[in-house]
Specification:
single chain; about 575 residues; mainly beta; 26 strands; about 55% strand; elongated
Length: about 575
């Protein structure tokens, strides 16, 4: 076998050598020959062996088609047309962690002029349907003048429950305000060596039932409210008051039909007076509310009974038109009413009242007002109103002839006219800076009196809050008031309790100068629970007076600490 391999190998190499010799000879001949003519007898046609003709891949066209037997069953189903654009489903987010609320705090402070401050506030915490809480406040100061002392305390409890159909709320309030009749006449400082003490104690309760709002074109709503208080002072004056208010409204598309009713029962007793002052009001109305406009038309029926009895009918018309949504609204009002005067309303305004205060209601015969309101962009709001009022029996304070540091209440017999302008503005530049301001300009034309005593023609108030950072904030406030006129009787008026017509021949007019009262404050939060505060009042240290002979405290400063929990 090996010999055969050797033989074949020898033959292969021998033939290869011969071919190589021939090729070299041809190349040598080509070098020697310049041109060669080749004659092609026939085209070259290679012939392949049968084995080479076999296909290396199968022919797919030769595969036979397999037909399976199929069984069909037709289902009767409705064709659904779902070619509309489907709504995107909001992706459920992870529940956000609720902010931890601080519901309670205790605050205390002290400062110059023997200032003492204390506050406590408590609340039940986060509950959308039920709120319960209460607070207590105390503030007292001692001025530089003899018995220029004042103190006030307030204790209040409140609650509100939101039911399925109604919301019920109520509060109980206890207040005490103590002062001295420290008024002093600089020209006669010896007249008041031992000022008398005065204190007002108020017990008040209030309850309210309101139907919850529903988005319906035929909704029926109602409100019921009751309020009662008992007030007394150290000079044997007492006043009791009960009021009941009701409100019904039926909405029919863009129309509202409503009826408001109120009954007030009041009685004021003093050493030699006993005055019953009761009022019944009935206000039917119809309201048209469409896009960009709201107009209410009705009448106000008022019946006074008690010591005085009389009936009155007044218009009650209001209109509000939106010219530029969120930016400009125009509003107007025509109304009239009987304003109930009381010992409480007088003492809240002027605590240095005399005994046997004359209680008489003021009739607002006609009140016309018109103005604009709206916003000028994020953080900017404004309101301006022009008004004209006609008041019958406008109450005024005058110093008593026998006791100069006590005030009597008189009434400007007839119809007084007030023309005024009121403006409000609020600017919030950012979360760190906010400014608010209010302006009142009034022109009084009294009926019988020479001036409207202690009624300022100009009053400006403003407040500024600046948050320097999350811990430190500042606030500032200013009050500006114009000069006012006061009347002093140089002789005893005839029948002061039944005073009607003034007597200029026995009157002396005194100008009480205007003032500018500026105050600033600062708060610094140490952590989530503790904070410190400081406040300074009457920075200009002006000894101005709101009422004749009663100077306010000069510059004073106090501060303290608060704890939240």
């Amino acid at each position: 076998m090996k010999s055969i391999k050797y033989i074949y190998s020898s033959l292969f190499f021998l033939s290869a050598g011969l071919m190589t010799v021939q090729a070299q000879e041809k190349k040598q001949e080509e070098k020697a020959t310049v041109s060669e003519e080749i004659e092609v007898v026939r085209p070259y046609k290679p012939i392949l062996a049968e084995a080479v003709k076999l296909r290396r891949s199968p022919n797919l066209d030769d595969v036979k088609t397999y037909k399976a037997r199929l069984n069909y069953s037709v289902t009767d189903r409705k064709l659904e047309i779902n070619s509309d654009i489907q709504k995107l489903q909001a992706q459920a987010l992870v529940d956000e962690k609720q902010t931890e609320l601080i519901n309670n705090y205790v605050k205390g402070g002290f400062g110059s002029l023997s200032t003492l401050l204390g506050e406590v506030y408590i609340n039940n915490g986060r509950d959308e349907a039920l709120q319960l809480g209460g607070y207590f406040k105390h503030f007292s100061q001692e001025g530089k003048l003899n018995k220029q002392n004042s103190s006030s305390q307030q204790l209040s409890l409140f609650g509100r429950s939101i039911l399925e159909e109604n919301t019920v709320s109520g509060r109980v309030n206890l207040e005490r305000n103590g002062v001295y009749f420290y008024g002093i006449d600089d020209t006669r400082p010896f007249l008041n060596p031992n000022p008398e003490k005065q204190a007002f104690t108020l017990i008040e309760a209030e309850g309210e039932l309101v139907k919850n709002y529903k988005e319906s074109e035929t909704d029926f709503s109602y409100t019921l409210k009751a309020n009662a208080y008992l007030l007394n002072d150290r000079l044997e004056a007492q006043e009791s008051y009960i009021t009941l208010n009701g409100y019904l409204n039926k909405r029919i598309s863009s129309l509202n039909l409503g009826l408001a009713a109120a009954t007030e029962f009041g009685n004021t007793k003093d050493i030699s007076t006993n005055i019953g002052n009761n009022i019944f009001r009935l206000n039917p109305y119809i309201r048209l509310q469409v896009k960009g406009a709201k107009v209410t038309a009705g009448v106000n029926l008022v019946q006074e009974f008690g010591t005085n009895s009389r009936s009155r009918i007044f218009p009650a018309v209001t209109a509000d038109f939106t010219l530029i949504p969120d930016y400009l609204q125009v509003f107007g009002e025509v109304k009239g009413d009987v304003n109930r005067n009381s010992l409480k309303s007088f003492s809240d305004e002027n605590p240095w009242l005399n005994t046997n205060v004359n209680i008489k209601n003021t009739v607002e015969k006609l009140s016309l007002s018109a103005g604009v309101k709206g916003t000028g962009g994020p953080g900017f709001g404004y309101k301006a109103r022009f008004y004209i009022k006609q008041l019958e029996d406008m109450p005024l304070f005058v110093n008593n002839f026998g006791e100069f540091n006590k005030f009597d209440v008189i009434y400007d017999f007839g119809t007084a006219k007030i023309t005024g302008l009121e403006g409000e503005i609020s600017v919030q530049v950012s979360d760190a800076l906010k400014w608010t301001g209010k302006l009142n300009v009034d022109d009084y034309k009294p009926a019988q009196e020479t001036y409207s005593w202690f009624k300022p023609g100009l009053k400006v108030s403003s407040n500024l809050v600046y948050n320097y950072n999350k811990k430190l904030s500042f606030n500032a406030g200013v009050v500006i008031q114009d000069d006012v006129k006061a009347k002093i009787n140089i002789q005893q008026p005839v029948a002061p309790a039944a005073y009607l017509m003034p007597n200029p021949s026995i009157e002396s007019i005194v100008t009480v100068k205007g003032f500018v009262d500026l105050g600033i404050g600062a708060d610094y939060r140490i952590n989530k629970k503790f904070a410190v505060f400081a406040k300074a009042n009457n920075l200009l240290n002006t000894n101005y007076s709101r009422y004749l002979y009663y100077q306010v405290n000069g510059f004073n400063i106090f501060g303290g600490l608060s704890y939240s929990f």
